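Morning run. Coffee first, then this:
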Amino acid sequence: MKWAALVRRRPAPRWTARLSLAAGTAAAVVLLLFAGLQSVLLVGVGLAGLVIAAAGVWWALARTGPARALAVVLALGSPVAVVVLYAVSGLLWVALVSLALWVLAVLSGRTALAADRGPTGVRERAVASPRRPFLIMNPRSGGGKVGSFHLEEKAKDLGAQVVVLDPAHHQDVAALARQAADEGADLLGVAGGDGTQALVAGVAVERGLPFMVISAGTRNHFALDLGLDREDPSLCLNALTDGVELRIDLGYVGDRVFVNNASFGAYATVVQSPAYREDKARTALQLLPDLLTRHSGPRLTVHAQTADGEAVIEAPQAVLVSNNPYRTDDPAGLGRRERLDSGVLGVLGVKVDNAAQAAGMLRGRRSPGLVSLTAQDVVVAADAPSVPVGVDGEALVLRTPVHCRIEPRALRVRVPRHRPGVPPGRPAMNWRQVGRLARTMGRTAAGRRPH
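And here it is:
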């Protein structure tokens, strides 16, 4: 029966791969048939527009005053100029049709590769419901989701002990969690932002208790990667009565736990500014020029212990160390993490010194200005005794060198049995693999998977 089901499922990625090849061929045919030799110029002008726009964005971030204004005009005007040029030459429709076909080819190719890769995700196991769950709720988090979704009342109806934080007074959430554990709590949970989630998750690991996430924060990145419902946080409470358990990794920066990431360099420095919370965009635009041109901020050096030995990143402007690597199926590569139990840290280092290197960032993770790797341990050194660090969105200052590590499968997380889940990521486009997948008719019938 399993073999028969496999045979029934296999045609989908095969035919999607064939659609990708057909659309890619059609994109080239449209260019050559209707634009002829001008097709080369058509592609060149489009690429030049992208490069100029990327350079304009860099100058806009790294300059101030009139130079910034001119850079903004350049970044916005170059794509418009390309479209106008296509229209004047009568080739705009050719460019649009060819571009649409090319996008279809890439999307369908990546979809086929993802379907062929098979299921991914953290393995779950059935568990008994907790008897004495303890939940901490931040009423200000997420614009007041605790109150608007009646989380306190619903949790108490399910038998949970709930502590709602007092916005007028600072409370040590880790101390509250430890006290609850001492008094017999058999589950710790948080309805709040990722920074609060991380602090209580560390106590859960320390006391050997399961942890529960309620997606009542603003962005809920951790909940996103756990596959929880971010639209209605009250649905997360179903984990108390019909839950399963996941074993996931936990990151540490020094002695501080992080569930998502720790950032160093430009971003970490910007969030330290007292004005950042009041006006994020204005504060970033004021501070970034000096940070990007290295006129201010410490000079960083990253030492990462990878499976192939030590990798060194010299003088990056920004570094992101994540609890498991972020996947690469979005432009920035920072949308979701494919897994939370791979046992390795993700490391992204950005080093851009001029407009040409900024334009090279269009190549994504193949850009020479972007270093992407995985590591078991990461040490961030600097030419200063301490550096600003953003830990799950919280601004800290830590003494150098800063040591980041990962504890594999350290955290037991309770999640609802029925939840949205994490959609599978799509791997980077690989035309050779798509071609092999498109030719798998005979291999599928014989029960063999393509390599």
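The longest strand covers residues 402-416. Good start to the day.
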